[in-house]
Amino acid sequence: MSRTIFEKGASGKSGDYIHENDCPVDQEKLVIQRNTPMNLPRIGEQGVIRHFCELASRNYHIDKGIYPLGSCTMKYNPVVHEEIAGRGEFGGLHPEQDPADVQGALELMYNLQESLCEICGMDAFSLQPAAGAHGELTGMMIARAYFQDRGEERRTVLVPDSAHGTNPASVAICGFTPETIKSDSRGMIDPDLLREKVNGQTAVLMLTLPNTLGLFEKDLKEIIEIVHQAGALIYMDGANMNALMGIVRPGEAGVDIMHVNLHKTFSTPHGGGGPGSGPIGVLGHLADYLPVPRPVRKGQSYDLDFESEKSIGKIHSYYGNFNVFIKAYAYILRLGAEGLREVSENAVINANYLMNLVKKNFTVKYPGPCMHEFVASSDPLREYGVKTLDVAKRLLDLGVHAPTVYFPLIVSEALMIEPVETEKKETLDQFASLLERVATEAAEDPQVLKDAPVNTPVRRLDEVRAARNPDFRWSPDGNPAEES
Amino acid sequence: MNMDDFRFTEEHEWVYMEDGVAVMGISDYACEELGDIVFVELPEVGDAVQQKDAIGTIEAVKTVADLFSPVSGEVVEVNGDIVDDPGLIKESPFEEGWFLKIKAEDGSELDDMLDFKQYKEFIGK
Fold first, then answer.
1. Is any Cβ of chain A less than 8 angstroms from the Cβ of B81?
2. Distance between CA A34 and CA A1 in Å, rounded?
3. Is residue A24 part of a domain?
C-alpha cells in the first residue's frame, strides 16, 4: 500500500520547484563557487511590471505613430501573423525532427519559396539567409562559384553610389573588389558611363532597385544588356521590393540574382536586432549553386534535399529563421496577388503625396515621381545655421520619429523619408505640417532647433564621447564600470 | 604655410610639396561637412600608395568617408596626434591637423589640382 500524499510531504519542505539540495557536497572542491553574492535587483513583481511599463512608455514605436525611417520600411505588421507564428504547432517543432513528422512546416517553406519565385519572377529561392546583407553575401558567393565553375577570373563588382551601404561591404567580404559608379544628374545610372566601366574583369553589377534615392532605373533594360553582353551577372538588392510587388518581376527583366527582406516587405517587425530573413532568388542557370538543404516536393509529400554538388553549402544553422517564414507566408496568403500590388501602389502614392508637401520647405534634389521613398535636403535651412541633425532632433520634440538622416551620402544634409503604405493621409498631413513647423522655427528662432530635443527623456547626447568612450554598464556607485 | 602653395582635390583633400614630400590633410570645408570626427584610420609608414586610391578612413558621427591619396609614392610620416585626438583636425585643418607625408614619385601630379581660389569656387564659397 503506497503512502498518501499527506504522508509524502514533511515539515520543513516547501512547494517550491527548486528545493535546497540535500546531497552531500565537499565544499573544498567547489573551486568555481562565487565569493560574492550576485547583485540582482530586489524588487517585487508589481515593481518589475511598473518599471518595464515605464520604459515602454518612453519608447517610440510604430504602434505609437509614424516611423518614417527611409530605407527601413517601418510598416505596421498585423498582430494575427504573430499569433499564427506563435502557435504551438509551429513553436513546438524541433529542427532535428524527421521530415516525415514535419510535413506542414516543409510545405510552408516550399510554398513560400514558390510564392517568392512568382512575385519576383525568379526560378528558385533559398530561405536561408538571416537578413538582407546576409542575402547579399550569399548572392556574391553564388556569383563567385558560378565564375569559378566557368574558369573565369572576374574580380570586380560594380556598385552605384546610390546603393545600400551594405552592398560594397558584402562584395569585399566575398573577396571581390567593389568599384563605385557615380549617379548622373537624374540620380540614376548613366548607360554610357556603365559601358566604360564594364569589362572582362566585371563579375557583377549590384543594383539597389529602386535605388536609395527612391528612383527606379529608367534605363534598366539597357543596363542589363550592357552587363550581360560582357558576360557578367546582375544582382538586385531587393530590400525595396515593397515598391514593386505585383508591378515588376525582376527575373523577367533579366536580373540573375536577388534578395528580398521578409522582415521589411513581408510583415515581420524589425529594428530591434532581428530575427530577420533575406531569402535569395536566382534564375535557372544559377539554381544549383543555392545553399542546401532545400525544401522540395516529392509527389504529395515534402523533403529536404541536401544533394547538390555545386551548392555553395550551408549559410545558416538548419533552414533559416523559420518563425519569420510563417509571418511572410501568412501575409502573402492573406493579401493575395491583388493585395500585394495594392501594398506597393499605396507605398508609392503615399511617398509621392508626402514628397509634394515636403517640397515646400525642403529641397528634393531629384524631383519627379519617386517610388516608395524620397530624399529631401535641409540645404535651404543652412542660411539660418541649421543642419539636418537639428531638424531631426526637433522632430523628436514634436513627438514623432525622425527620418533617416545623412543617407544616402550623395545628397547633402539628407532626410530620407519612407512613409510606407500603412499610413493614412491624415498622418502624412500631420507629419508634413510638423516638418513645415520646424522649417518655420529654423527661420524665426533657430536656437529652438539647436537646443532640441527638450521634451525627450534625455537631451542631445555627446555623440563624439559616445563613439570614443562608450560606457554601457551601470554600476552601483555611478562611476563608469571598470573593464574586467 | 601660404595658402597659395596648397593644392586641392575634388575629394576635399589638400596637399603641398616640401622637398619632394607631399604633406596632405582635409579642408576646413570637408571638416564642416563631415561633422564631428571620431576616428581616423591611416596607412602605415612605408606603405606604397597610388594616387586616387582609398588609403584610409575618416569616421564621423554621421558618416564614414574614404581618405584618398592625392599622390603616388611612399608614406614617410603619419600624424599620430590626430589618431589620438581627431578633434584636432577640425581645430586646425591646415596645420596641426595634417594627415600624412608621402614621398611623391612625381610631384607633377599637383599640376592638375585646384589652387586655393579654384577650390573656393568649387565649393561655392
1. no
2. 46
3. no
